[in-house]
Q: What sequence folds into this?
């Protein structure tokens, strides 16, 4: 469903394959949560889709929580870059902080990870629904 392409400068990125169903394209757009298309969202969407495919091929349901935990960035530089890439992500951090860290002391890194986790959970739900829809067709 996804492919890796290379930019002129040599960096690689994930994108949908030519001829991907319209429903999948729509789900990817929705999974961007109002952001313009960006590498982080496409990379994580491709990883979610692969996890759903692998679970189906092996005959078991994916462990959503474990899969999402594994997709959250762990390196400080990557987390800070994720936040810097799209300034409106500060709102995601604020929202996640209010939900996950009420009354607790936490670091900005933990808050960014919480925002990524919440974002990935929303992406998972959108993509899983479309994955199931594609399986039924």
A:
């Amino acid at each position: 469903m996804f492919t890796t392409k290379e930019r002129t400068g040599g960096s690689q990125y994930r994108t949908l394959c030519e001829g991907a169903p319209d429903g999948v394209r729509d789900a990817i757009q929705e999974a961007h949560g109002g952001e313009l298309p960006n590498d982080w969202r496409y990379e994580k969407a491709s990883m979610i889709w692969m996890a759903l495919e692998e679970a189906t091929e092996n005959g078991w349901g994916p462990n959503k929580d474990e899969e999402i935990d594994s997709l959250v960035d762990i390196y400080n530089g990557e987390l800070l870059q994720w936040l810097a890439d799209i300034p409106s992500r500060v709102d995601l951090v604020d929202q996640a902080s209010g939900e996950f860290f009420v009354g607790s002391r936490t670091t900005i890194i933990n808050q960014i990870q919480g925002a990524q986790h919440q974002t990935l959970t929303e992406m998972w739900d959108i993509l899983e629904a479309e994955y199931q829809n594609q399986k039924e067709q």
Summary: The mean pLDDT is 91. The chain has one domain: 2-136. The first strand starts at residue 2 and ends at 6.
